[in-house]
């Protein structure tokens, strides 16, 4: 082995000269740089936010291109040896003096730890784009989901409050499934008109028509729908004898997002969820149904009054999405180009922020976005975050608006804010507050999800507000909540 290492810019220039008509992309430069430092693909994935298998694919293609250009095999393991040898052979003796000992100083580290240049930095809103470096992996979450979707007839549910990253994760699973040759049928129940939920028959016909379109098949429901057999049986026949027959042998991923919208219509939800459960059970024996892989994404537990052994949500694999750890917050801070966050001291500076907002992805991204733009310091952000003048003002307004629309939720929230103990809540109120990301549940007992909400809402809720909220409850609701305290 050569005792010296090549300066990073010289390395990049040399490789681009070798490849000639194949200039390095940003992600290729990142993989080359990290491989030169001896980092694993898994470590690269953690730093960049890209999936590890994608990083590996980029690396494999890069080593193949280099092998073809050099006329000898290049791998991640022999990268130093081959490139150093070829550079030694090709440069002039006087140029040899320009070889520098590669030091991992701030300038070289920041070139690739700051991945902002890979994509436009938009205001944090909605799912994280597939090619964005701002998606942070939460091992083993992604690996678990991707593995499960390969299982015949699987039923998996992704459960997390609003703005926790359900859609971002789901989009990445579907992208992987497409790469494997799977067919995708994606439905978001937020897109359904209110009128769709007026009857089970209308809902299931809407469901089948949309799945047909997603699979590029003509919707011919009338050929399979039979009122005498009922909507659920007709829907099953439509899938079994048409949709799953008229596609090739590749699996079909049925991804249902925002399923909690259906929970708001108990009569429809009960039949629909039981139908999905039955399909999952049939798939254990029937090869046709084994082609169907189902993913349900929702914000809260089901509060439709089903018996435990009837609910489809006690089958398959449950995938709760956890908040970011402090290390993951630090990795994301690096992606935002916050140089002061790269070392252990940076992690210590971020710890109070993580403690206040509980690692919730949306809250974390919003904080780092503002810190990146330099219009506020971390110290000022922490001081003003729980106030009406802080960066979360609009977020607080949206939550207050939702709570004020349902007095029982406002009252329940006030009870939780005023104590550090767990509070027993009505099941539906507990699940709705959980779906908003405001509380964490242990059964029906709730506690606040993060200190930010306690600090903010404790300022908003005074004795007068509490009395007003309680007075808006019905007599029966007042009695029920009094019994829970």
Notes on the structure:
The protein has 485 residues and is of the alpha/beta class. It folds into three domains: 8-113, no CATH class; 141-320, 3-Layer(aba) Sandwich (Rossmann fold), CATH 3.40.50.300; 394-484, no CATH class. The chain has 23 helices and eight strands. It has helices at residues 8-19, 26-36, 41-48, 52-70, 79-90, 106-113, 141-148, 166-179, 200-214, 231-243, 260-263, 266-282, 287-290, 326-335, 344-357, 361-372, 378-384, 393-405, 407-417, 427-435, 451-460, 463-471, 475-484, and strands spanning 155-159, 183-188, 252-257, 292-298, 317-320, 423-424, 439-442, 445-448. The strands form two sheets. Strands 2-3-4-1-5 form a five-stranded parallel β-sheet, sandwiched between helices. The chain has a three-stranded antiparallel β-sheet with strand order 6-8-7. A hairpin with a 2-residue loop joins strand 7 and strand 8. Helix 2 (26-36) packs across helix 4, helix 9 (200-214) packs parallel to helix 10 (231-243) and helix 18 (393-405) packs across helix 19.
Q: Structural class per helix/strand content? A: alpha/beta
Gap between N and C termini, in Å?
A: 72 Å
Looking at this structure, what is the CATH superfamily of the largest domain? P-loop containing nucleotide triphosphate hydrolases
In CATH terms, what is the fold-level topology of the largest domain?
A: Rossmann fold
Helicity range: 40-55%
DSSP, total strands:
8
- How many helices does DSSP assign? 23
Strand content: 5-15%
């Amino acid at each position: 082995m050569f005792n010296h290492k090549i300066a990073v810019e010289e390395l990049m220039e040399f490789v681009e000269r070798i490849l000639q008509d194949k200039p390095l992309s940003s992600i290729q430069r990142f993989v080359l740089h990290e491989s030169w430092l001896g980092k694993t693909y898994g470590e690269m994935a953690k730093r960049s936010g890209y999936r590890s298998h994608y990083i590996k694919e980029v690396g494999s293609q890069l080593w193949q291109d280099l092998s073809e250009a050099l006329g000898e095999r290049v791998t991640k393991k022999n990268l130093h040896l081959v490139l150093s040898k070829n550079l030694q052979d090709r440069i002039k003796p006087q140029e040899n003096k320009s070889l520098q000992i590669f030091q991992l100083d701030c300038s070289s580290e920041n070139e690739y730890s700051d991945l902002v240049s890979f994509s436009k930095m938009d205001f944090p809103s909605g799912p994280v784009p597939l090619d964005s470096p701002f998606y942070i992996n939460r091992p083993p979450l992604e690996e678990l989901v991707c593995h499960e979707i390969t299982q015949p007839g699987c039923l998996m549910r992704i459960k997390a409050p609003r703005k926790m990253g359900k859609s971002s994760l789901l989009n990445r699973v579907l992208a992987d499934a497409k790469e494997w040759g799977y067919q995708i049928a994606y439905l978001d129940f937020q897109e359904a008109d209110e009128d769709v939920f007026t009857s089970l028959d209308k809902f299931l016909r809407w469901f089948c028509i949309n799945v047909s379109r997603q699979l590029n098949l003509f919707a011919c429901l009338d050929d399979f729908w039979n009122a005498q057999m009922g909507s659920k049986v007709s829907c099953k026949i439509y899938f079994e004898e048409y949709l799953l027959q008229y596609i090739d042998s590749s699996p079909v991923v049925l991804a249902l997002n925002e399923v909690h919208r259906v929970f708001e219509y108990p009569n429809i939800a009960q039949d629909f969820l039981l139908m999905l459960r039955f399909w999952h059970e049939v798939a254990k024996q029937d090869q046709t149904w084994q082609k169907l892989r189902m993913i349900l994404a929702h914000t809260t537990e089901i509060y439709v009054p089903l018996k435990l052994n009837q609910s489809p949500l006690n089958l398959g694999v449950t995938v709760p999405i956890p908040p970011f750890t402090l290390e993951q917050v630090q990795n994301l801070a690096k992606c935002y180009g916050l140089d002061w966050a790269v070392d252990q001291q940076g992690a210590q500076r971020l710890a109070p922020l993580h403690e206040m907002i509980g690692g919730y992805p949306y809250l974390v991204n919003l904080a780092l976005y503002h810190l990146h733009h330099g219009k506020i310091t971390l110290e000022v952000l922490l001081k003003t975050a729980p106030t009406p003048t802080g960066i979360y003002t609009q977020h607080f307004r949206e939550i207050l608006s939702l709570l004020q629309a349902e007095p029982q939720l406002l009252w329940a929230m006030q009870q939780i804010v005023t104590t550090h103990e767990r509070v027993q809540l009505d099941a539906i109120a507990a699940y709705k507050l959980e779906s908003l990301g405001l509380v964490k549940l242990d059964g029906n007992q709730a506690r606040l999800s993060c200190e930010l909400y306690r600090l903010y809402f404790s300022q908003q809720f005074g004795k007068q507000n509490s009395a007003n909220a309680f007075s808006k409850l019905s007599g029966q609701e007042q009695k029920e909540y009094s019994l829970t305290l």
